[in-house]
Amino acid sequence: MKKHYLKFGIFYCILALMLFLAAVLFYTKRKIDKVNEFTCSTVNNSYAMIPPEVNTDPRTLMRNMLSNWAFLAIGNNEDVGYYSAIIDVRNNYSVLLETRDFLEVSYYGEIEHETYTDSDGRFHDDNIPVIPRTERYLFTDGPMDLTEEEMDALYPTLRGSITNAKCDDIWIYEGELNISAPDGIRTIPIATYDQVDTSMEVPMEDCIVRIDNITPCFMAGTGRKNRLYNEARSCASVFLDQYLDGLTTGEVTFDRGILTSKASAVYVANGGDYLIVFYSVEKPLYMVLRDNIKVYIGALAALLIVQGLIISAVKKLYHDQKDFEIRSRQLTYDIASDLKKPLTRTKSYIERWEACDDDKKKQNYSKKIIDEVDSMSDTVSKFLSSGSVRNKRR
Predict the structure, then answer these.
(1) Tens digits of per-residue pLDDT, 52-80?
(2) Which of 50, 75, 353, 375, CA to CA, is 20 to 30 A from 88?
């Protein structure tokens, strides 16, 4: 009997577990499909943003890509590992420019000072930008690990400044980036790059009259984002080799999976002199589990409660059945004991009835036999009633 109830409990516990797993898998798959609807859209957007010029000189190409990356950095969160690079085909497929953390400096290059008279006769000074706002870009030496306070300091409050720097038509280089931090002024060295055009070099003050804001563009990032970035960078190298060997096309391609989703593309620029590689990596399952952790914890708690209820119910049924059988055995024993004496008396009456020739005594023995049989019948009826209840409970 114990094995019977043990099998019964295991069966329903396994059934509850299978239903739970089926529900969780269905829910997770739906969530992953939803994530994958927009997976690696960074590559698609970046590819679509490239200007359609057939022939583009490398400096215009670099500026366009930096502007492209700065725009993508706005929505490039920690869940996306994005890598892009400009490959110089003529120079042994060397990397001309690749994504990394950088700063976009928006500024006005020339401002005209004008004084005019208000309607009430008062004089009023105003600075009028003669040249529209434009951007230059800078990389820092080492990781750009800015705190929230330091990032806020770079925006229109203008508590960030650049000193001792130089410019060409794209870059701000050398010098220092000074940021207001909670514990004082933090100074970050500005890197110098191979792509700088020294023939256009001027002091920063000669081309930047007023900085409008400085925007951090985290493409490589730190922590988990940096791991995804490095994975995308490694995959992009393999993908480029496959493209050059003719094993894949340069069209935007999506590889949507459960653990990892990827997107890739190659843009041919300037008649094949340059290749722009795009690659992004995301982890849909990780994102779903992280964003829905409370749902999974709640579902697991519900499963444990159901499993506990099943085990409790099976234990109660087992103990009730065990108690019932003990009572039934006791009742059977009691009935057997109760029948023993009446059977003995009945047997004795029958023997006497058979040996007696006196009709009057026979009639008396017959009455006693009938009384004993009726008594035993009542006892047996109670026993049968008990057995019927027992069978129903089983």
Answers:
(1) 665 678 888 898 899 889 888 877 678 88
(2) 75
